[in-house]
Amino acid sequence: MHGYKVYLCFRVLLTWCLVVAVAHQVVEKHASELDLNCESYEDGIDWPQVRENLFVFLRRPSGDHPFLDSLFAIGRRKSDCYIGLCCLGYLAIVFMSPEKRLKAMSTTLFGSVPLWDQIPLSYWDTINSKWPIFGLLEVLQSQMRDPSSPAPAHADGCCDRMEELDQRFHKVLDRQLAAGQFIPAQSSLRYLAESPSRCSFGKAAAYVALGERLLLVGSPVLTQAAKDLLALGEAQLDRCAVGRNATVFEQMQSAWPTWYSSPPLRPATSLPRPDRAPPQRLPPDPGAVGTATTEARGVHVALSGDDRHMEGLLAALQSLVLGVSDARRVCVHVFALQQELSGLKAALGCSFKDRLAEDEADPDGLFVGGVAVRIHIFTESEVLSDEMAVDAGVTVEAGDLNAPHNFVRFHLGKWIPYAQRIVYLDTDVIVKGDVCELHDSVFHHSHTVSGKVLAAVPRRHLPLSFYLKVFSPRMPIWVPSSAPSFNAGVMVIDMLAWAEHNVTGEVLAWARRNKNRDLWRHGSQPPLLLLLYDRVEWIADIWNVDGLGHYGNRSSELISKAKILHWTGPLKPWLGSLD
Ligand SMILES: *[C@@H]1O[C@H](CO)[C@@H](O)[C@H](O)[C@H]1NC(C)=O
Ligand SMILES: *[C@@H]1O[C@H](CO)[C@@H](O)[C@H](O)[C@H]1NC(C)=O
Ligand SMILES: *[C@@H]1O[C@H](CO)[C@@H](O)[C@H](O)[C@H]1NC(C)=O
Q: What's the CA-to-centroid distance between 404 and ligand 2, angstroms?
């Protein structure tokens, strides 16, 4: 029995070394050296046989295959057969312990990069290379879903949409896959037709299913169409994240099959026998519910406020954590100046005590009740140009609008480049609702269709003319004076649309034009109103019950329904100015 354990340890160690060795060779390789079939290689390895064996393995992953050890040995050799080595690398990961496997997929070149960086081939070419990369990835994905494995944190909430429409199609997929049947083309088509134009993993799966369906018909005309459909599926994956492609690991965490959607092409899903990869659970750790990397979390919330409002920030964070339905989805980004950092950390420590855990992977990362908290240090000059400063008078009247923290909202993409949308909150709020609900409730149409950049609550009683000098002869553009304004202290930003409209650049350009206060007086809100007043999706007023710092007289009915309370104005409960 003891000898057997030693054997297993040895085996796990061996496969780990193999992966590291292959990863090493993988970096050195260059796409132009690809010879897909590897049949011409004179490296003494029978690559066609290797490939054949991989297919035998995939037909019955749980079987006892005598060739496995020789495949592991080949994986450790040097060769130019790039794809072959990648396959053997993935095979080694299949036989790792669940913890090692999770680590290999989330941190090594096998999983932490987009598939395109790993195998620079289209889906079409990958399938035609005849190397079963997708099949091996499918097996790895099933292993990760196995309840006895340590659960990878849930994947990105934006790509993995699961609304009613998606659930219906997902059910069809599940049922057909379980029965070994094709996905009816009609189901895929209907789902695609009804889905919003935004990208999603579900739509990728639908396109891939359609493509595979046509591919298996085998007619040359349909084959061309299949190729196009597969490319559409890939494009869905490519555009899910902002400015980058989803990583293999992210794809693997998805609830959708994004490599194959047709049973005839998929490997058998029976998993390798557990005695080859003994399941071991990680010891429970305080941050365990929140082990997703910052980037993999789908709901990003930005909180920015200066240390005068530290207690506001703590209260906002505390309330947000209490209200959130799925802590694992949420990452809160807190912004601080260097000199505020130690105070902030100390304050977090004493407010949250044992509910606070450090993120071992990230010195600036913490977990509060499972919600990831990431602290970003910024400098004043990064966010605040001279033109942005406000008149001294306003500072007293409306709270400290001059604090650099107020201008962080214009530059969020710099610190959170991977977020598709960001919920921005001032620190003088109390969140009574679920911030995930706010995040998920907006932008059901792609910005290319809707033209919307922000979602915010309208302030119908405060028209644009209240903030902007719309009638000034120096106002270079026409602005509808009586259109409603909005408060930019609670908003959801579509980061793609924001980038596309160059909002950061335009805000700075407008601030320069406003040097002499010809266009507006107050700080950070007016340029957003000016630029985006007609690009805002209105949300229900319960999401920003504001003005609490001006008057104590908001109706109690509204306050009781409120999902976010907002103390705009000079009176903040934590400054002791309210009785
Ligand atoms: C994303 O992947 C596609 C291929 O699927 C590739 O053409 C593109 O360059 C990749 N984009 C980035 C930003 O890496
Ligand atoms: C963004 O806007 C600024 C100001 O108008 C301009 O100088 C800059 O070139 C723009 N950037 C892009 C990428 O369009
Ligand atoms: C609250 O008070 C302000 C200022 O005193 C007043 O203008 C406003 O109409 C009041 N609102 C309500 C709902 O009573």
A: 22
* pLDDT, mean over the chain: 78
Residue 11 has a CB neighbour count (10 Å cut-off) of 18
Indicate which CATH number applies to the domain containing 550.
3.90.550.10
User: Could you tell me if the CB of 264 is within 6 A of ligand 2?
Assistant: no
User: What's residue 490's pLDDT?
Assistant: 95
Lowest mean pLDDT across 218-222, 245-249, 385-389, 551-555: 385-389
Residues 559 and 451 in one domain: yes
Return the exposure string of 237-246: e unless at least 16 CB atoms fall within 10 Å of the residue's CB, then b. Answer: bbbbbbeebb
- Say which ligand is closest to the CA of 122: 1
Cα(307) to centroid(ligand 1), Å = 42
Taking the centre of ligand 2 as the mean of its atom positions, its distance from the CA of residue 119, in whole angstroms, is 35
From residue 71, alpha-carbon distances to 68, 76, 78, 133, 299 in Å are 5, 9, 13, 15, 42
Give the residue from 230, 246, 262 where a domain finishes. Answer: 246
> Is 286 within the bounds of a domain?
no
Q: What are the pLDDT digits (tens) for 551-570?
A: 656 777 777 888 998 877 66
Measured torsion, CA atoms of residues 398, 403, 409, 415, in degrees rounded to the nearest 10: -160
138/178 same-domain check: no
Terminal CA-CA length for the chain: 71
443 within domain boundaries: yes
450 vs 440: CA distance, rounded Å? 16
Residues 242 and 316 in one domain: no
- Give the model confidence (pLDDT) of 330-366 as tens digits: 999 999 988 888 888 888 888 887 788 887 777 777 8
| Domain co-membership, 44 together with 134 | yes
Crossing angle, helix 82-94 and helix 2-28, to 10 degrees?
A: 150
Would you place residue 458 in the very low, low, confident or very high pLDDT band (cuts 50, 70, 90)? very high
Bridge partners, residue 331, by sequence: 300, 372
Structural domain boundaries enclosing 134: 2-111+130-144
Tell me, yes or no, whether 154 lies in a domain.
no
**Ligand nearest to C-alpha 531:** 2
Tokens of 64: 């006892």
> Do 426 and 493 lie in a common domain?
yes
176 in the same domain as 222: yes
Give the number of domains in the chain: 3
Asked if residue 498 and residue 367 are part of one domain, the reply reads: yes
When pLDDT is averaged across residues 175-198 and rounded to a whole number, the result is 85
Query: Is residue 218, in this structure, part of any structural domain at all?
Result: yes
Q: E strands along 281-384, which residues?
A: 299-304, 330-337, 356-358, 365-368, 371-378
Are 89 and 170 in the same domain? no
Residue 124 above 70 pLDDT? yes
d(CA 267, CA 484): 57
Closest-CA residue to 205 (of 140, 262, 243): 262
Mutate to test the pocket of ligand 2, among 502, 510, 513, 514 (most ligand atoms within 8 A of CB): 502
Average pLDDT, integer, range 543-552: 74
